[in-house]
User: Which sequence fits this backbone?
């Protein structure tokens, strides 16, 4: 008899409540949990088909060791012993920094996995940690650190009471709300606010599904959002639409005013290609609305001056009094002092990178630097890498270059559900536990919600027989290598001691589990206990929503918002004094990307069976005017050419994008391998990120130009599919 079990979806940050029917230990159906007090209306096809990942025939269910060109199953004991021996040899000979790790986006959803990877790296120790934020939210981390004193001080959005939304480079209609600016059922609530009279201003070079619902769509030139935002700030100073009360909580107003007054609106208008009248109109609508907020996300953040856009977007909110007010941006302190915890437990590294000498952002180096760090000889060269739930050969810049670098490592260990493109050269494949097989309470996730809500993720089915959780593999590796977890030898002793006691008494509950840390954190937070959360399978609204927590959470020494941090101001001045570069004649078009409801970055593109997918995988959207000028018609085979690569694609002539811009989806072109070597590699479409160089970065956030990449389109005869093992021509 089927039984319904409740948990939430860990695929994207919406964390939709799930009602999972389970029969004889197998997932039969996944539905939204309609009794969920927080979020179930965003429930989508990715959540509905989550079990296809669990039961996929290519899922890795045992450690696999590379032997010549094949993989052979091995026990955990063999895997841990071999990996520990090899890592130890590297560590003794070259030092801890020769060992690196990359964590992908799904790691943000597992407190225990992320904690134990971090604990392992701290124990080595190594500063060579790489994270998906360097192709995502780094601009926010840089700005939050400079303005608010902590890279993790992120503000949520308060959608219901908002009367003017200004969305820059985000498409919540398809992406839902990411962890920054997160709101449960957010897009639907925004549409409801709009129906009640709210203004919805969307700034996007493409008429995205979000933009198509806008009261005003501003089709900006990619990469120039900073100029548009500076224009708004200029007008707000000029018209004196400032919110004086909140300005007392800031420093740097004078410097900011000087910067904003010194610009010419005409020049800014030319840069972003938005008429002066529109800039003035948006400034008026935003500044004079009874409530409002501005959100800047990946569209602007993954471009050349994404950090400046992020900064000016935050400034816009502050100077118009949108912080901690209904309809504005608010801080959720969560169930625990998560910012203090991150700072203490993960103590972010400040060691600059070896080759390019760049400082880490929020404790992690930029993915764009990884190939150089592996390939450049000398002390500190990376020789071993743990790839934890990530696929950077597809999701990061210049995949072919990273692929080549990964092939040169002495040891590559992947912890993942599958063997994908980034794990092609792995010496060991370690299985992962899917979120539907994990019971864990993520104490930090609660602070990303827009209301005081917390839920325990529940294992609704067991993992495949013998598969150990990611954290346990990492902890056992540390014990075997005598690497003190978190740099604390007593931590290892505590794990060993508790396990010995459990064995002796036959009581498994006495053996250490990461839940011990979570319980402790909840107790220190003093808002909810583990048992209270456990007693609410649909999740718990633990208090009423309040406004104002942000002011107490500020981490700057003077407890004020720094409106005009010197590093950001200096970069802005540099931009202002550089004339708008005309598009290079060889590469006159700007490439941007997009997401689709069915996919999650580069995963789910290949494991869940949606028939339309191959049709979408290698399509490049071209504005009609550009297509006409090139003589390209719908469906024509074309080549997309950048400074570093050339990729085949099919043209889709479109009236939705501004001329000069082309759109190519990311996430495709990743191989799905069968480690047993019995099946051929599944690979659909092309990896458009092969067009993006790892050399050209936003100087502040170190994010590569995933958006606004200079390209050209050539007509071609026959389209062929390129992949990293067959690098495209340079
Ligand atoms: N052009 C372009 N590129 C982009 C973006 C863009 O907008 N445009 N977006 C960027 C963004 S925002 C992000 S976050 C990055 C993502 O970059 P990554 O996180 O590196 O890439 P993903 O494609 O999300 O790969 C996730 C991997 O995690 C595995 N996985 C899934 N669940 C689990 C689990 O529970 N445990 C373990 N161990 N593994 C698991 C999957 O099988 C997959 O191999 O991509 C970035 N790349
Ligand atoms: N279905 C689905 N949902 C997802 C994901 C997914 O892969 N699939 N990924 C999740 C993750 S990891 C994240 S980080 C979030 C990201 O969530 P969002 O930040 O909302 O990401 P996108 O949906 O890619 O929207 C970015 C928009 O920016 C526009 N854009 C591109 N370049 C520029 C520019 O220079 N300026 C401006 N103003 N706009 C520009 C694009 O046209 C696009 O419409 O989504 C999450 N949700
Ligand atoms: S993937 Fe879909 S179902 Fe899962 S949390 Fe995101 S929006 Fe909800
Ligand atoms: Mo992301």
Assistant:
């Amino acid at each position: 008899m089927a039984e319904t079990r409740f948990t939430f979806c860990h695929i994207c940050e919406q964390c939709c409540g799930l009602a999972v029917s389970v029969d004889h230990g197998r997932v039969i159906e996944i539905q939204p949990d309609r009794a969920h007090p927080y979020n179930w209306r965003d429930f989508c096809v990715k959540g509905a088909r989550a079990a296809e990942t669990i039961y996929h025939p290519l899922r890795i269910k045992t450690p696999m060791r590379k032997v010549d060109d094949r993989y052979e199953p091995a026990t955990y004991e063999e895997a841990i012993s071999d990996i520990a021996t090899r890592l130890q040899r590297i560590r003794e000979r070259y030092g801890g920094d020769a060992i690196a790790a990359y964590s992908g986006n799904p790691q943000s959803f597992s407190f225990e996995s992320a904690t134990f990877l971090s604990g392992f790296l701290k124990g080595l120790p190594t500063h060579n940690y790489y994270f998906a934020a360097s192709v995502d939210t780094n601009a926010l981390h840089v700005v939050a650190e400079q303005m608010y004193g902590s890279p993790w001080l992120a503000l949520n959005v308060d959608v219901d009471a908002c009367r003017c939304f200004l969305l820059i480079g985000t498409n919540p209609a398809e992406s839902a709300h990411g962890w920054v600016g997160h709101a449960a059922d957010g897009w639907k609530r925004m549409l409801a606010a709009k129906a009640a009279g709210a203004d919805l201003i969307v700034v996007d070079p493409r008429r995205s599904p979000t933009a198509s619902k806008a009261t005003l769509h501003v089709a900006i030139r990619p990469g120039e959002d900073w100029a548009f935002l500076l224009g708004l700030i200029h007008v707000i100073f000029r018209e004196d639409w400032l919110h004086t009360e909140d300005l007392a909580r800031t420093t740097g107003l004078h410097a900011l005013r000087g910067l904003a007054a010194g610009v010419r609106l005409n020049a800014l208008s030319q840069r972003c290609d938005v008429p002066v009248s529109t800039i003035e109109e948006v400034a008026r609508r935003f500044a004079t609305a009874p409530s409002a907020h501005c959100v800047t996300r990946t569209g602007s953040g993954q471009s050349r001056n994404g950090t400046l856009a992020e900064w000016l977007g935050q400034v816009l909110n502050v100077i118009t009094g949108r912080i901690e007010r209904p309809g504005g941006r608010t801080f959720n302190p969560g169930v625990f002092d998560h910012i203090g915890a991150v700072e203490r437990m993960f103590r972010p590294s400040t060691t600059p990178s070896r080759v390019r000498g760049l400082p880490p952002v929020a404790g992690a180096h930029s993915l764009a630097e990884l190939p150089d760090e592996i390939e450049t000889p000398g002390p500190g060269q990376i020789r071993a890498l743990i790839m934890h739930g990530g696929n950077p050969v597809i999701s990061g810049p210049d995949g072919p270059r990273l692929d080549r670098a990964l092939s040169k490592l002495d040891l590559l260990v992947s912890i993942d559900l599958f063997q994908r493109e980034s794990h092609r050269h792995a010496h060991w494949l370690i299985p992962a536990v899917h979120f539907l097989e994990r019971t864990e309470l993520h104490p930090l996730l609660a602070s990303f919600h827009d209301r005081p809500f917390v839920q325990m993720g529940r294992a609704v089915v067991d993992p495949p027989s013998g598969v150990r959780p990611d954290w346990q593999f990492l902890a056992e590796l540390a014990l075997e290598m005598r690497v003190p977890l978190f740099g604390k030898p007593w931590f290892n002793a505590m794990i060993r001691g508790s396990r010995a006691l459990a064995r002796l008494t036959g009581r498994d509950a006495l053996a250490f589990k990461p839940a011990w840390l979570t319980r402790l954190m909840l107790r220190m937070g003093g808002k909810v206990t583990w048992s209270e959360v456990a007693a609410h399978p649909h999740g718990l609204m633990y208090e009423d929503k309040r406004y104002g927590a942000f002011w107490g959470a500020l981490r700057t020494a003077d407890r004020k918002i720094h409106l005009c941090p010197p590093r950001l101001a200096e970069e802005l001045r540099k931009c202002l004094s550089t004339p708008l570069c005309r598009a290079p004649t060889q590469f006159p078009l700007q490439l941007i990307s997009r997401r689709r409801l069915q996919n999650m970055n580069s995963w789910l593109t290949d494991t869940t069976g949606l028939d339309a997918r191959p049709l979408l995988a290698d399509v490049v959207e071209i504005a009609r005017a550009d297509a006409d000028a090139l003589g390209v018609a719908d469906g024509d085979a074309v080549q997309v050419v950048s400074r570093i690569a050339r990729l085949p694609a099919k043209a889709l002539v479109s009236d939705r994008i501004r001329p000069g811009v082309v759109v190519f989806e990311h996430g495709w072109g990743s191989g799905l391998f069968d480690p047993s070597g019995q099946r051929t590699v599944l690979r659909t479409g092309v990896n458009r990120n092969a067009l993006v160089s790892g050399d050209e970065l936003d100087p502040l956030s170190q994010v590569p130009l995933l958006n606004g990449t200079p390209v050209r389109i050539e007509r071609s005869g026959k389209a062929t599919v390129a992949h990293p093992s067959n690098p495209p021509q340079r």
